[in-house]
Write a structure and sequence with these properties.
Blueprint: H1 2-9, H2 29-44, E1 48-51, E2 68-71, H3 78-81, E3 88-90, H4 97-106, E4 109-110, E5 112-115, H5 120-129, E6 134-137, E7 153-154, E8 177-180
Parallel strand pairs: 2-3, 5-6, 6-8
Antiparallel strand pairs: 1-2, 4-7
């Protein structure tokens, strides 16, 4: 956790068009307030705020929130249950891969899930059993290129088409996108 907090705290928040900026604003003032309410709620419900992005130094114009990490999150907390769409990492701890997969699959959402591992067996098990459209193995974001189709599932998807690439043709399939990096 200390290495994660340290790395996240080095991210530069600002105008996404500026050189050296890692993270831009959220889309609107109401989106910012929504994200801030999740951070505050997570702390009130017992989460441990390891990195607080609410006071990030940012440009005067825009709706900015810095990287935020909340540890000791439980599955029943709103910060764990809902899709936040902001720079907030909710850390839920489990004792096994099976518990992690069960926790992910219990969610009504299925946009993306990522595992960091050096075990090919764990990566395969995770990729095949997790009920999400975009699966990452040792990558932070499992859709690194714009031409990768959006693979959301469950309540993270709306409509009948994924609308990009081959998915526009294979519109009634239930596909997964798996992005992996091994070193």
């Amino acid at each position: 956790m200390p290495a994660l907090v340290e790395a996240a705290s080095r991210l530069v928040v600002g105008n996404g068009l500026d050189e050296g900026v890692n993270m831009g604003p959220v889309i609107s003032a109401s989106a910012k307030q929504r994200v801030l309410s999740y951070i505050e709620g997570g702390v009130k419900e017992g989460g441990a705020l390891l990195l607080d992005g609410r006071s990030a130094r940012v440009p005067p114009q825009g709706h900015f929130i810095g990287p935020t990490i909340v540890d000791q999150v439980r599955p029943e907390m709103a910060i764990a249950r809902d899709e936040i769409f902001g720079p907030v990492m909710a850390v839920l701890r489990v004792a096994s891969l099976d518990q992690a997969i069960d926790l992910i699959n219990a969610s009504p959402y299925g946009n993306a899930a990522v595992i960091y591992t050096q075990s090919g067996a764990a990566a395969r098990e995770f990729a095949y059993r997790v009920e999400c459209g975009d699966i990452g193995v040792n990558v932070g974001l499992p859709a690194p290129m714009a031409f990768f189709p959006f693979g959301g599932r469950k309540e993270s998807f709306f409509g009948v088409l994924h609308g990009q690439s081959q998915d526009a043709v294979d519109f009634f399939t239930d596909r997964k996108i798996i992005i992996q990096r091994w070193w």
